[in-house]
């Protein structure tokens, strides 16, 4: 099974940046994703190295382009802001119009300035799950990043940053940001649970990147626009609860068998799929009505080179569906 991914070398975004009080289009070039280190058990004898598909996918530099206009805020999360965007045009490497291959409206996820690395990591997981895009995860049309400046002058207003409400700790943007974008596999690892045999993480430009207030980076992930998140506990249809949750477990099973441990399976990261966009899942022979999103905190094992513990950990994450004690509907409160 191979899904065809539409990836562009640049995206032009309207209604996103203003200069001198006037809205100006901003062009953001395709950027590499940020590979995670491989999650392993604490083996005495390490398993064989992971396959080279662990690397970030090559950045398209073929002149293909996507042009969109922001239409409205969808929501805000820990690392970013999501917006609806109308697709104005889409051209392949030969300059041919491919807009008919795109949905009329997509979703743009903008990183808050300190969290660009997390968004780059999110993009890498979509690459790793490329065969499941449009089946159990959302379709991804590319990851893009560029300094926000026009004619050498810092843009005075970036709409997604200006509209952000959630403030990490006590700080907001610019020089006041002190919170670093630390990823799960970069925390102290005394048990040696993370491995980087090929150096894909080590050699990534994102490993040492740090946010600069003087030169902030505009980073955006272009993905398929889906519907609202899964039911809150008092809204699940009582007579359908078990069937709904079993369907979600099947969706999670797709990513688990690819070695992905999401680490944040909540109702808010499970989005509804329009009936017209449902694609047959070859693993379960059904059309998933929901898709899993937001992989920036995820781990990945190599299913072909791992131990029983990792396989069990990936498989049992489906058990978190509907479990309030695991934070399925939000943070677990004491």
Please give the structural blueprint.
Layout: E1 10-19, E2 22-29, E3 38-39, E4 65-76, E5 80-91, E6 105-111, H1 116-128, E7 140-147, E8 149-150, E9 153-154, E10 157-158, H2 159-162, E11 194-195, E12 217-224, H3 241-256, E13 260-261, E14 270-272, E15 280-281, E16 286-287, E17 290-292, E18 299-300, H4 308-316
Parallel strand pairs: 1-4
Antiparallel strand pairs: 1-2, 1-10, 3-11, 4-5, 5-6, 6-12, 7-12, 8-9, 13-18, 14-17, 15-16
Protein name: Protein kinase domain-containing protein
Structure description:
- This is Protein kinase domain-containing protein.
- It comes from Asterophora parasitica.
- Strands 1, 2, 4, 5, 6, 7, 10 and 12 form an 8-stranded mixed β-sheet that branches. Strands 3-11 form a two-stranded antiparallel sheet.
- It has one domain: Orthogonal Bundle (Transferase(Phosphotransferase), domain 1), CATH 1.10.510.
- It has helices spanning 116-128, 159-162, 241-256, 308-316, and strands at residues 10-19, 22-29, 38-39, 65-76, 80-91, 105-111, 140-147, 149-150, 153-154, 157-158, 194-195, 217-224, 260-261, 270-272, 280-281, 286-287, 290-292, 299-300.
- It is built from 4 helices and 18 strands.
- Strand 15 and strand 16 (286-287) form a beta hairpin.
- With 334 residues, the chain is an alpha+beta fold.
